[in-house]
């Protein structure tokens, strides 16, 4: 995977007021930490950072601070609850080339299960360990032809080269089932059928009286 290059500016003002001023300027407050170094507070270009986070589940950033570059991964993204595209704060974890890191990778279901069945994604992501510069964008799970009652576990997934499963192999990722109504649904259907039958009987009786 390629790195997104960002030119960061060191921050010296902190607190909610300073963060609001940073965001009004089109920047994103962020903190860079890891590998035993002291946290570095920076401001990142807002639009460029947002696009990188939008188009990748685990984007790798190359952060330039006063001419010194450092690779980093987004570990915690705080978004505006009213506007998903507005990022309020970003935590960045320092990584090195060749270093193994643990990340959550989205599950992407492909194929069609057996006729009359549906698939349920029990786990939207799968945790894996991989090279910081070779992180998978998604893990495909094929449900082609799978029948009712089938469960696809993490141990059955075909992981991208260089990735190692971190979660338990028996962890259920996708399950296949036939849609079934609840007892309440069945009772409601029976009540509707009874009402329709009674109405039909009443109509027939009325028609007989008229004749």
From TrEMBL:
The keyword Ribosomal protein applies. GO terms for biological process: translation. One of its GO terms (molecular function) is 5S rRNA binding. Residues 100-180 form the Large ribosomal subunit protein bL25 beta domain. Signal peptide: none annotated. The keyword Repeat does not apply. Residues 6-92 form the Large ribosomal subunit protein bL25 L25 domain. Residues 182-211 have a biased composition (Low complexity). InterPro entries: Rbsml_bL25/Gln-tRNA_synth_N, Ribosomal_bL25/Gln-tRNA_synth, Ribosomal_bL25_b-dom, Ribosomal_bL25_C, Ribosomal_bL25_long, Ribosomal_L25_dom, Ribosomal_uL5_bac-type. GO terms for cellular component: cytosolic large ribosomal subunit. Residues 179-211 are annotated as: Disordered. Keywords: Ribonucleoprotein, Ribosomal protein, RNA-binding, rRNA-binding. Part of the 50S ribosomal subunit; part of the 5S rRNA/L5/L18/L25 subcomplex. Contacts the 5S rRNA. Binds to the 5S rRNA independently of L5 and L18. Belongs to the bacterial ribosomal protein bL25 family. CTC subfamily. This is one of the proteins that binds to the 5S RNA in the ribosome where it forms part of the central protuberance. This is Large ribosomal subunit protein bL25. It comes from Cellulomonas aerilata. The lineage of its organism: Bacteria, Bacillati, Actinomycetota, Actinomycetes, Micrococcales.
């Amino acid at each position: 995977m390629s790195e997104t290059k960002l030119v960061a500016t060191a921050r010296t003002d902190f607190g909610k007021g300073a963060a609001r001023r940073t965001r009004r300027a089109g920047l994103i407050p962020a903190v860079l930490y890891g590998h035993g170094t002291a946290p570095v507070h920076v401001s990142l270009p807002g639009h460029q950072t947002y696009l990188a986070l939008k188009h990748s589940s685990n984007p790798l950033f190359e952060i330039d601070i006063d001419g010194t570059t450092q690779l980093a991964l987004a570990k915690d993204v705080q978004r505006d609850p009213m506007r998903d595209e507005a990022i309020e704060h970003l935590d960045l974890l320092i990584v090195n080339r060749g270093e193994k890191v643990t990340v959550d990778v989205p599950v992407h279901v492909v194929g069609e299960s057996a006729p009359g069945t549906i698939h349920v994604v029990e786990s939207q992501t799968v945790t894996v360990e991989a090279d910081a510069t070779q992180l998978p964008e998604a893990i495909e799970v094929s449900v082609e032809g799978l029948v009712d009652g089938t469960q696809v576990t993490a141990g059955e997934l075909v992981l991208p080269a260089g990735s190692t499963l971190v979660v338990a192999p028996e962890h259920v990722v996708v399950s296949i089932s036939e849609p079934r109504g609840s007892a309440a649904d069945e009772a409601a259907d029976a009540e509707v059928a009874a009402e329709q039958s009674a109405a039909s009987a009443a109509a027939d009786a009325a028609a007989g009286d008229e004749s």
